[in-house]
Model the fold of this input.
Amino acid sequence: MNPLYPGIKNDSSPTDLAAIPVVEYNVFSDRVSDLLKDGSKHCIAYYGVETSGHLKFYCCIADDSDNCIAVLSHQQKGNHPVLKSLTPGCPQLHIFEREIHENFGVEFEGHPWLKPVRYPQDRYDKSKNIDNYPFYEIGSEELHEVGVGPIHAGVIEPGHFRFICNGEKVLHLEIQLGYQHRGIEKLWIERKDSLQRCLLSECIAGDTSIGHALAHAQLVESLAGFEVSEALQIERCIALEMERMAVHIGDTAALCGDIAYQLGQVVCETLRTTIINTTQLWCGNRFGKGLVRPGGSNYPLSNAVADEMLRVLADSGGRFDEINDRIYSLPSVLARFEDIGKISEKQALSIGAVGMAARTCGIARDIRKTHPFQFYKYFPIQPVMCETGDVFARSMLRNLEVRESVKIVRGLIEIWRQKDKDTKKPVYDYTLKPDCFALSMVEGWRGEICHAALTDTAGNIEHYKIKDPSMHNWLALALAVRNQEISDFPVCNKSFNLSYCGNDL
Amino acid sequence: MLRELKILRSHGIQYVKNLRTQPVSELFRGRPVIAGNLSPDEINEIAGLCPVYAIDKEAGSMDLGKCVFCKECAFRQPDKIRFTNDYRIASNTREDLLIKPGVEVPVRIDENKVRKEIKKFFKGALKLRQISAGGDNSNEMELAATGNVNFDAGRYGIEFVASPRHADGIVITGPITKNMAVPLQLCYDAVPAPKIIILAGTDAISGGLFAGSPAIDRSFLDKYPVDLWVPGNPVHPLTFINGVLDMIGRKTNRMKS
Done:
């Protein structure tokens, strides 16, 4: 452990606030720049907290090589402080500094573009609103702009994409989000009821209900000092893998749909249905809402459900392999996937890409392996990797991860059968350790989910920070479509499948 | 070609033949049933527990337009409250989403209250524009699933279309965020009349968990009548399709040839 700042572990006990040294901003900048200078570490959260006229900042940097997370802090007096931006040296911090600027009016000198993140209702500067956002203009008579959104042609969430094109070629894509902002972080503090918080966690991004609900449950368990049985930990990992498989298969369907390969689309649609219907068999909801709760479970896995799960995985897994063999043997598919929407390893590292976006550029970021949680601590997994950083890599990664998840679920069920089963019900009435900082990370299907909480002297949650992996990865999409045909945008967008509401909160 | 045929063969028939009666898993949280003998103390307990204040403290009735189907009330009072797997819970009147203790009746469309032009113009085909206004993407995915090979609402001419100009109405998901208030209005205005409004999911019907959040703006709903309320968290594709079929007055289950 570094004496300069505490190094904490994922899914472990909370840290006393007093153990997190609050340093001068120049010391903070030096340490952060030093930590982020090589690719083995990345920033998982950096945010501000307003307390009685002060702004206190927390920055968490994960070291993928030794499972440690460094927590650094600095504090500023009064509102509207001016700080030297760290983004020029560490581009991955761009989004966090933008968020801090938007929420508190902090000026970051030298930041290339303090573009709004989500226009939250409690933003610092209310004179500006999302309806008259000034998009970047290039002022050329030879180039043209294409605006898409906020409402899209498909049945998807809203967000605005503004392209600057030279003919059919995209020179620049600007993404403006915020349309989905529901004020979740604020509600978290206002709604003290712990059941409400569980339900809110499932709605952060409804396509990742299990991932976010698990991040929340882990955090509560850490702060309340709950132990959960190994059987329940295994069940949670199984649920997370089921979610991963369902979305990956659905995305494969959508990718096939975007390139008009209808057989691939319809086959994968039905396969996704079989997986989510199995989750529904387990807990009564196709998205697993209600399945993950702190302290226990309302839906303990039964042998009958486990048997059915294995049957479905054998059947659907086999059919998924069959269609994938066909998809990746078709020149007409490969021509639309290969070398399209490419980002390099260097770009991915510099923007701090996580999850699938990182692993498809050869960066082994997978929280299940690098900062293991729940039963992954005892069931090591090997991250699936692709190298080419294009649409092909992102679709192939899904194919390979589904195969891997099938194996993981089979392995987990085998171990689960030998464990003592837990009959504990969820706990909604608990006291949390006071004056603490706690952090919880989960590898959802998109990538790294991070929830962080601060408790006050009475043990109430004083501040709750949510980070969906999409926060990091939206910029990857903008970079991927540069110099591409604008007609390739839909397939590029789908290949990342990032969350709008997870970003907007 | 032979490989394609082989793939088709290993998949067999995947579409749901009868969308009216297709069984779903027993645990599916659909229409709740509340016993008539709930004591005032029990009502108080579950009303206090409900995270979205869907249970009336006096009457013990449950508002499906507010319910997020977490089932915690049924876990607390398993002998008095149960959630059946009846997924046909859409209605064209807000009042019919109220489940009263001791009354076990299906939630249905009141045909007499359906606007005349809906049956006249949309019975054969209904094209809809979906607007997500703070939806968490689970409702959006379920609505998209209504058109997939399994549910295939397209067999009845029910489809989501890309442009409001091609649509007969809008389907709103999400609690309606402030940041989506203007785009929602623009989109609705772009739909030619006569047009309908469907609210899909608890968030859209009442705000759900987000009711009262300063980040939402539901004033759009004060201006126009709602034609169909489809509860769910998220809405099940079968709930949506059955609700729409009942609203447009399609009785038959005959497939189009």
Notes: Chain B touches chain A through 66 residues (CB under 8 Å).
